[in-house]
Fold this sequence. Notes:
Elements: H1 2-22, E1 31-38, E2 45-54, H2 59-62, E3 70-74, E4 77-78, E5 82-83, H3 84-91, E6 98-104, E7 110-116
Antiparallel strand pairs: 1-2, 2-3, 2-5, 3-4, 3-6, 6-7
Amino acid sequence: MHRLKLAYILGLTLLLVSALASAGERGYFGFGMSLTTSGFPLNPTVKKIRIASVEPGTPAASSGIAANDEIIKLEGVAIAGRKAKELQSLAASDIGQTLNLEMKRPDGTVYRTSLVAARRPK
């Protein structure tokens, strides 16, 4: 009986430790960005964010985001005219959290997409 109780406690402890290890771990979306900014370099005002690259097999690739698409809204907040640190805090997502984007293709087509943050590949 004591062995069964000990095994249960150890199993529960391992489950909690693994849950805590991933809690707060920053997620990965799989795209690189190119920013057009102005102002003070440590917290510039953002004019545009373009997708520079998309890694295959990532949340960004699965959602159809492509290089040269422009992010026009992040979590419902317009990009143009916002401070970089404000946008950074809006985009920071833990694994499993959703990031909502409004995008514009080079041809002017606007679309919305939601990405679920994944664990960064090693």
